[in-house]
Amino acid sequence: MAFKKWNRSPSKKTPVRSWQPDEMKIIGWCLNKKIGVGISPDWKHDLHHWQIDIKIGNGKVHTDPNRYSDEDVHENVIKYYKYYYEKYRD
């Protein structure tokens, strides 16, 4: 019996960033209100492009139509968190 040797598919390593305390406050507030912003790989482009997914309470996930590089993705994630924090805070 012969087995086909599969080539390993390329993988995307998630960019890492340390959040500042004031950013953590905003992110924590949003998560408590069931507002989540995350990143996912954009498999249609090269290994350094990401898309941003936004989930607000009802379970629907909205995807930002723009694509971001490793350097820009976390800056845009915090912009989304700040936007929803400003829009919905009491």
Write the layout of secondary structure elements.
Elements (H helix, E strand, L loop, with lengths): L20 H12 L2 E7 L7 E8 L4 E3 L4 E2 L3 H16 L2
Antiparallel strand pairs: 1-2, 2-3, 2-4
How is the biggest beta sheet arranged? Answer: 4 strands, antiparallel
Number of helices: 2
N→C terminal distance: 66 Å
Give the SSE string: HEEEEH
What do the pLDDT scores average to?
Answer: 86
Radius of gyration, Cα only, in angstroms? 17 Å
Q: What is the total tally of β strands? A: 4
**Into which percentage range does the β-strand content fall?**
15-25%
Report the helical percentage: 25-40%
Shape: globular
Which class best fits the helix and strand makeup?
alpha+beta
Low-confidence stretches: none
Describe the structure.
With 90 residues, the chain is of the alpha+beta class. Helices cover 31% and strands 22% of the residues. It has helices spanning 21-32, 73-88; strands at 35-41, 49-56, 61-63, 68-69. Strands 1, 2, 3 and 4 form a 4-stranded antiparallel beta sheet that branches. α1 crosses α2 (73-88). The longest helix is centred in the C-terminal third of the chain and has 16 residues, at 73-88. The model has no long low-confidence stretch (mean pLDDT 86).
Outline of this structure?
This protein is of the alpha+beta class and 90 residues long.
